[in-house]
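Hi again,

Forgot to attach this to my earlier email, sorry! This is the prediction with DQA bound. I've pasted everything inline since the attachment limit keeps bouncing my files.
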Amino acid sequence: MSAMKNYSVLILNGPNLRFVGQRDPGTYGSQAMETLFSIFEQKQPELAARVNWTYFQANGEGELIDELERAWQAGVQGLIINPGAYTHTSLALADCLAWIGIPCVEVHLSNVWGREEIRRRSLTAAHSLGVIAGFGIMSYVLGMEALVWHLDRTQTGESS
Ligand code: DQA
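C-alpha cells for the complex follow:
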C-alpha cells in the first residue's frame, strides 16, 4: 500500500474577492469563501487531510506579490490563485508566478470566456498548470483536486 503525501497550498484571492457571495451574486455566486473552507473540511475530508492550506486575500498587486514571495520562501508546494481583474492586466503578477515556479491552478468564479472580450485574455494563465472557471466557489474545490492530482505525480515529498 503506498503512503499518501501531504502538501502545503496557498489559496490566493485578488482584488474585489473579499466579499465573495455578496458581490454581484448573479455573476459570482452567492456562496462566501467561508463556505469553501467548510466544503474542504466537511465534504472533502480526504482532500482536507492531504492539504495544509492557508488563505490570503488582497486588493493590491504588490501585496499579492509579497505574499507569493513569502510562499516561495516558506517552500509552499502549490497555489490556487484567483487574480481577479489582475488576471487580465498584471504583467507584474505574471512575472512573479513565472519566477517563483510554484505549481499553480488559476481559478475563476465566473466563466471568463463567456463575458466581455477583455476577460478572455489572461496574462497569468500561461504560468499555471491550467484554468478552472465558471463554477463559483466549486472552481476552487476542483482546482484543489487538480493541483493535488498534479503534485502526486510530480513531487517526491514527505509521505505520511
Ligand atoms: C474573476 C473574473 C475577473 O474577470 C474579475 O475581474 C474578477 C473575478 C472571477 O473569479 O470570475 O474580479 O476573477
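Residues 138-154 form the longest helix (17 residues). The chain has a mean pLDDT of 94.

That should be everything now.

G.
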